Records
---
Amino acid sequence: MTGVSGLLPPLGPSRAARRPSSAERTLGNGLTVLAVRRPAVPLVELRLRIPFAGNRPGHRARASLLANSLLLGTAQRSELELVQALQEVGTELAVGSDNDRVLISGSVLRAGLNTGLDLLAEVLTAAAYPARLVAGERKRLRDQLRIARSQPDVVARVARARRVYGKHPYAEVLAADGDVAGLDATALRRVHRQRIQPTGARLVLVGDLSPARTLDAVEAALGGWAPGAAPVSLRPAPTPVPGPLLLVDRPGAVQSCLRLAGSAPMRTDPGYPAMQLANLVFGGYFSSRYVENIREAKGYTYTPRSSIEHRMAGSAFAVDADVSTAVTAPALLETQYELGRMATLPITEAELDSARQYALGNLALSTSTQAGLAATLAGLAGPGLGLDWIADYRRALLSVGVDDVLEQASRFLAPSRLVTVVVGDAAAIREQLGTLAEIA
Amino acid sequence: MARHSLANGLRVVLAPDRSSAVVGVAVYYDVGMRSEPEGRTGFAHLFEHMMFQGSQHVEKMAHMRHVQSSGGTVNGSTRMDYTNYFELLPSNALERALFLEADRMRSPRITAANLTNQISVVKEEIRVNVLNQPYGGFPWLSLPPVLFDTFPNAHNGYGDFVDLDSATVDDATAFFNTYYAPSNAVLVVCGDIDPELTTDLIERHFADIAARPKPSRPCTAEPDLTAPRRSRVTDALAPAPALALGWRVPDPVADLEAYLPYVVAAEVLSEGDASRLEQRLVRRDQLALSQSAYLGLFGDPFDSRDPVTLSMTLHHPATVIADAVLDALDDELRRFAADGLADGELRRVNARIASQLLREADSVLGRTLQFAAYELIYGRAELLTELPGRLAAVTGEQVVAAVATLTPDHRAVVELVPGAARTHSAPRRGR
């Protein structure tokens, strides 16, 4: 790898991570509960994933405003009384949403777990949506969305999703202002009744707990949450259709956001481990070709990166780099070059080993805390995966070869398969980009 | 937890914890943005980048590669009073991390090509985080020049492009020789370690680094404001206005007892949905879109020496004028100071603080960094284990007394004027 091999200390014997004890149960109302014991500190991390996909226009707005308004009080408690009761057991719940789900997250002191579960049940079954507070949240959400849309990264994500997903619901990254404006407390209460229900929902608890007793406690607290209709499944996300480069004008921008995207195998696909290693070698970590080229050799950018995003209706491969306006076309050229090299030539064994060790180590490190393990399991909860998947994935990474990586890269990293979006100062970059690509 | 020093002056803290097979390694150098000479703004941060450009036995890119191919992660950051470098690794890679940190403490590769490259990278970092970003650098770059008068405290620590472009290899070499002496650094190893074995490894890798004198610290003392200050910055990319407020608070190192009530006060004021400012400004009055109050420019109350700032940042709609937000804020602070805490308020906030501290303590990397910062700033890594008890012991009277000092007569206010706002009807005063 470098001339240092004689001096670099060898790795010591590695300590195998032990699988934590856990228990899982699907309650009569359809809620699946996973409790994992990791007693490092006297806390319990909590993640509740409620399926919330939808095909109707304005669905993103309903999810966003509902998430922002869920904790505005219950039939029993005002907003202040509710958040104070949560604070009393050391917690604050955060509610977020995306195209697939609503996610409620928090961490609670061990001694307050039962109280925390009771409060969660109260929110799920008796959220009040007071009209005045919902009106305030609606106004605040509209202002926050306006601020979000001023950020170049958000502009780029919105443009890329539209280009990639077309008429699929994943095209709507952010709620539209007009859709938010049309919602009120009555609408939210109706959406809550229809969609905030346990059928298909998954609750992950990680921390200083006894798995079996915790399942009983959850059953006692949430067993009465009434089931509803089966959650909406979205049609599979379309495979992106490459075409002319989409140039989004941000007059005067000092940087251009280069954004490429294509499809990727889902986590349960046998090719996924090799694809993840292809992603790492290309631009998925610092020791990658993309970083070495456009950052450490050429100085075009601070944070070039590639990633794989998993969602229920399909996974996506993405390349992101914010580059100086003057070098927009040269940076795109290097991007295409490195992608093309991945797609047509095998990587080296050293590159493979480095990426594999990083993937294994990163998995171990990121699941070594209660919060990290809870976040990982919450991410896996959508397709119903868990600790077994993590163990299988570790094993699968060990057997990936150079040819497997090339096979995945030729399918998913080939520039001819990727959509390209550039957000920047069109007057300054249109001509130079036109030398490399047809512009829409 | 145990500490010792090597003959060359390097201070070492070992904190074993065998609960998971993970080890954190951190090297903190006692040099930060406040140490930069005039005409060299941003130099401490630029130099942080240079420490990743290879060293005597490690080629460019190889430091990262050796850590990542061992299954670890690596990074660094530059603060007001220190620059840190850290790795989190599977514990079987501990010696690699020690070798890599020692090699660059001994001799980083400061070449013209690397310097030119990293000046470009740093400028892109500033573009992505500040120049191309609405609210970029607000308020950490815009508040200090209003609250402070002396160069170490007031200047732009990210750096002016003119200064960055004029940095030379000689500057960087001199900076390294002065500030990256072993006697000016703290090494912390925390997690799955055998202390005796680790002590031997540290001796093997670091002991032959030549001793150099410990540099003097910059003079950062300056008096508190005696009158309010107010200024405006225009952000061409921002669609809505924002406000930043700053107050001086007691010296945390000289008088931690006087400082801790401000830490709790910031929590009561700002942490979470039940907090005073969230309830008053966001929920009840609906004047602000978001609020935050925190100690330290980067939101860490224990990462810098005096002077430390208590900052508040308030984003508000263009339809609300800045003075309406300030009036409501001042009213809330006055009521707090006059009426004190509500029944149970301190108990609830303490439960929240305890839970947050436990969450941080669950992370080996988090503990590694805190041990190192407390050893460097306070000379006492053991502060990490003492803080939960000391914060819990802060009384309601102390919190109220701290809040009572947050008056308009000695604060700095920066109004962010949105250059990208749509045309609105006439702003209103309050609701």
---
Amino acid sequence: MPCSRYNPQKPMIVVRRYLLIALAVAWMGGVLARADGADDRTQPVADLAKQIASIAGPGPAKLTLRNLSSLSPEELPGIRKMLERDLRSYGVRVSDADSATTIRMTLSENTTGGLWVAEVQEGTEVHVVMISVSLRRPNETQMGVGITLRKSLTWQQQEPVLDTLTVQSADSRRMLVLEPRRLVSYGMVAGSWTKEQEFVITHGRPFPRDMRGRLLEGQGHLFYAYLPGVLCTGDQSEKLLAVSCSDSDDPWPLSETSGAQNTVPQKAFYNATRNYFTGVLAPGFAMQLPPFSDSTIFPRSNGMAMLFNGIDGKVVMVENNMMKSVTGTRDWGSDLVSIRSGCGSGIQVLVSASGAAPMDSVRAYEIPGREAVPVSPPLALEGPVMALRPSQDGTAATLVVRTGTRGQTQRYEVYRVSALCN
Amino acid sequence: MFRRFAISGILLWCALDASARTRQHYGGTLRVEVQSDPWQGPDGIARQLTMDGLTQMDTVGTVQPALSSRWESQNEDHRWQFWIRGNVQFHDGTPLTADAVVASLTQSCKYGCPWTKVHAVGQSIVFTTDQAIPDLPAQLAQAKFLISHQDAQGSLEGTGAFRAAGFPNGVMVFTANDDHWSGRPFIDTVEVRPRRTIRDQWMDMSIGRTDVVEIPPEMLRQASQQHLAVLSSGPENLLLLQLGSTGPLSNPQLRQAVALAVDRNALYNVIFQRQGEIAASLLPSVLSGYTFLFPPERNLNRAHELRGGAKPSQLTVTVEDGNPAMQLSAERIVLNLREAGFQVQIVSFGGNMQPDIVLKQIHLETNDPWAALDEIVQSSGQRVSIHGTDTASLYRTEKDFLATYTVVPLLWLPRAYAISERVRDLHLSVDGSPIIADATIEDVK
């Protein structure tokens, strides 16, 4: 029986449709963000207006407004307008003209956020009222030319993040966040991650100051958490996670990308009192490797190669059981990972910037011979890289950045970093 | 002015904090020079290296666990219980116990303590007090409450990231504590050369003989002219006048006249070379956000009015810390007061005579505004009652205290250090002291 069919979609129509949807989403996002920003101010302004009115009472008043905070000047007219409107509702008629009542409003801030202060002067008597408000930070994106690295925020929190992992088991999907002192699991509820369980990580000896840890899916258990001197395993039991941790010197599985299936998986022994791998691998390459802070595996024309970022700042590559120095790595920091982007040669090594750089960043490199060649502009970051790990599908990297400076609350932001081909 | 201070004082800090990060190397020796005795004063560098507190402040001023792994308040902040971290030992191998902590706190706080009673309950410590102390965890992070005990030889032993290893050739040597509960420090050894004048410290820095030297606030400009790498804190030291409420200044109007007579701009512009922040309030702007509500301007006419033609007997002014900048400040203030019609003379600090006015600096150790207010008021020998926890309550408490005119804030000053090129990852804590346990040496591979 013939069934009715529509004509196939024309590519241009599809593209235009997606473009229109994207523009609409972007516009909606902008509108919502602005509306959200305005909402942030509405309640504090209303509260402050109420307090001012209770002092000034109905009648004319002169209002002055000054900004000592990090709010942009463009926000001031809106805040003033809201305040005038709210004061009017209490019978306070605001103008710029001199009046017996003067309201001096100052937008200030302290370590906990914004502080809006109103000084209500009647004659020589001055009354002060104030309220605390939240200051929101605008989101920023970074784009470049050539192969462009793009980052998208996947998670953020105040506690340090060592690694994250998404695991699927039976009918549930969870995100695991590994912190220095605990492992926290989140479940997806109504489109957002909601905390389900947390597990304190027990350990016999002190952890090192520069704490590192890795979450990996594995055989035998739902996941493994590797920490200095500690190995945790996680399993699901009746919809709940069960995590068991014990002191362990087991070597850590090294970073692998897809496409490395034909190689023997290497593990490396981690120095439990320091912040690096000892250089001893299992099964190893029948050669002595220097202590290294990170490593990654990537395909070359004649097979797979492994890169080791030595703690002495030198980068070596092991290829066909031969160790070679890699040049062009002067700007490299400690963390590196390879991703299967499909751009250029197909695989790039993403590397954090060296400590000498004024700002941290991540940059993509290819290594056609023995020299690392940058193939993307640096992706600027708002703080130092704390961890750089391959994503589970190997096409992107998971990046942990610590943001915030003194006087601000520091946050740990987790990004997915991917490459855009140009 | 504040903006300039923020830029000059915090810029390097911000830059360092936001800079890229190569993972820290282990090893090496850090050489530090200081003017004072490293064991003297609660924030002496030797104490900071070798001892830990029950709590500590992180670099953004949040209270974090230290020797106490957790705590809780009961009875509306009148009772606090802190649980001791397990498996911690003093450097001589003695296990850290609740009894040892209580003994240390009792020794370090003989009077004017925030608590009424402290005692051990199992592996926990219980503080009780007549007054609610919501900020006790922040207060316990102060250097004066660092935990120590006396070993068999009578020396003070701590649990800190470094242990004292000797004093050869006038240099104090501290070595890394491999078993520190927070992880071994990156540097192997810290050498502290005490009692070095600023001139000698800077000379040693110029010839590569040291890695960390002190910079007084009034010399920050000179340090930048000499292209020293400067690590500067935010407002950490409050320069203030403490006025006696008895004797010639028993009349509050006279104390107010003194407050109005002082020319803070002259101190800021001339003596302290425009470093820091002019202060008419106790808390710095970064903590309170409302300093503009306290006008710092001098008002000589009003000072004359308040004095009302009365000629109080001669006032005496003394300087608690006799460094040259403080001495110059005192002389300047004496001139200001004479212009307001007061008879004033400078007397030396100490002795039996109780001066009417004391010029002093108070070092702020906390980033919690309530704890900071407590700390400042307590250091002037007074107490404030806390009502409420919001910023408006904080403002009212501070305003009421300042209205007594027993303390006249003058300037907030930063703490600063010059560091050599081989030092990395050295940051300042919220109290402006260098966090040496997290620092590394660049030339160590």
---
Amino acid sequence: MHKTVPIVVLAGIALLPTTSRGPGRVAPSVAGTVSGSVTYTGTPPKMKPIDMSKEPSCASQHATPVMTENAVTGAGSTLANVVIYVSAGEQGAAATAAVRYDQKGCQYLPHVAVVEVNQPLEIYNDDQTSHNIHPLATTNAEWNKSQPPGAPPIHTSYGKPEFIPVKCNVHPWMHGYFAVLSTAHHAVSGADGKFTLAGLAPGKYTLTAWHEKFGTQTAEVTITGNETATANFVFKATPY
Amino acid sequence: MGKLLAALIAVITIVSTAIFVRHTWWMPPDISVHGAGIDHQLGETMLSAGLLFVVSQLVLAFFIWRFADRGDARPIKTFPGGVTPMVVGALVLVGAEVLALTFVGTKVWAGIYQAPPNPNALHIDVQAEQFAFYFRYAGVDGKFGGTHPNLIDDGNGNFFGLDPANDTSARDDIVAASLVIPANQPILLTMHAKDVGHAFYVPELRIQQDFVPGLDIPLQFTATKTGKYEIVCTQLCGLGHYNMRAYLEVKAPDDFAQWLKDQAAQQ
């Protein structure tokens, strides 16, 4: 029996999807960078203050009310929380360090967490109240788990790429996303709309930018050496 | 032992009666127009049930004291006519008491739950869900937008399933997580449940009503005292039931108008 185990494991590895990912593919001496910004045209929806009065231990953590986050914008029509990633091209080395996701002040921090396929994800409850995190996965397995105050983190991972909305079954206003990607090249735009993808080997790339409300945009980029290429994305915003 | 038990029953009766007579654990002060009727009815129920309780317990104590087994092997005497007339008599007496209380209380109950809607009432839509309450005001147009369960999106603050993209009357609807009302104005709630059964209970308002999925249940009341009170769910509705609450804020009419204006600006 003992001899069969490695064969089963090897068979399992052989069945894994083969991509161009692999450790140490990009030597720093020939790595390019893509940077740019994400903006919008049109009128985005108005973000509303969240009333957390039913959960005093969370409400007291915020001097001013937390706002909804489904379209976070900045000065100059910039758009935050947009995931920019390589959807076609060399995918880079798989990450092994865990991604930390926090439930703090009855909010999900960060609002959009990027986690690579099979990358460990650790979910913490930093609040003095119970949370029940419920990622609404459809391609991956769906689950929900209760986490009382002081409970150890939930260790999990996802095997397939998917944008997964996350909600709390106890606090209806809590809302976030897991962006499960099959690439190591990803970034999330900040409040200033800016992003940077570094460590890209020479080659042709398709970049995709995803926003939870305004959909996706793509851009083609070619890296030839150590240069910094530019890719800007413009989303069409609607108020409702 | 018989005499000790009789004395114990008497002491329990006296102490528990004193707790009720002194209102040691009692309802919080009433803040509603209809509450006096409820309190009156509650008082009558407590008085009639309390009197019967005291009399029956003291009679029980007396009988134990007087007729306890003295160990002299005398035959046990039974109730005249056997057990049947005693059980029938007890059922008739208790049934008559419950029926009498129901008849007396019906008027008070119907005055709250069956009264026709007050034409001056402020309409507020209520959505109960695991594990929160949300309240909707009609906004400046005075009209509620239609609700579409398929559009409910808690994460984006659309707790009622409004369709502001296509329904202009929904655009100014005000949705809040607290029930804010003006004092001395009749309020008409229309209550909906998104998922399972919930309940709306404000002890100070002397009102309690279940939410039932699929039903639009009206509930009327008028609050008379400004202040902040807790709304709790009193139907076990799931894991977070213990945490399902909201606040009722009764404001002076001017303060309420200002609050509504501030809320409208945020929508």
---
Amino acid sequence: MNPENQLLDPHQWVKAHADYLYAYTIKRIDDTELARDLVQETFLAALEKVKNFEGRSSERTWLTAILKNKIIDVYRKKSARLAKEVQQAEHEQQDFFEDDGHWSPGHRPLSFGIEQVDPLVNKEFNTILQKCMQKLPALWMAVFTMKHIDDEETTVICSELKVSPANFWVIIHRTKLNLRACLQRNWGENL
Amino acid sequence: MSYLKKVQYNCKKATFLIEKKMADRITFREHIELRIHLMGCSVCKLYGKQSRIINDMVQQLWQSSMPDQVRLDDDFKKELQERIEEELNKK
């Protein structure tokens, strides 16, 4: 047995990492059943790979990498519906803008106090932000989080999710337009 | 419409470039177009400011959120560890 393998201790895996991996999944895939399955699959897949572990990363990092690939598989399956979602996005975008590219009157951004919000203390704002994010199509959220949270290269995201660069940018643009409008609608009322 | 007018009036394009610039980079030409547009368009300027704030907030929410609330229930964890032990014993 490779001495580095001593760094892995499957007897403690669930205790040490299950909640962490579950939270990691839930943030990316808003589906508790599926998230539980993915955590379980991750541990089982990891058992198969124990002998490949080279000890170059921590146990948790190594498990997370396995989980991440499983999450991307889920995203990928969802992107089968992509063409339709992008079409819908472009259609709905006409609501935001007039034919000549001007903001349409009802959707023009207004100052709604977001500058004054301290999200670390304002739970109410965070709740609204979370709700606005949950309303977005899963694939948009996947694209958005891979870009803005995981800081992945655009080319990597496009190839992993099998999205064309043009569609990638439509999704990034559309996601932000939607999030912003949703926050203005729901937070603006509190002023 | 002249080229310049098109740039000045196209908020759809301008907000697109704002997003692209924030996520990656834009070309020199796009950069100039965006600047020309923003000089004359306070609405898109506001959009850009809000958009950056939203990015920060999503990141903060992401990093801080839910470590306590999101947990697997103990029964599931117990079964899961048993399953792992079972696999270990097979080897």
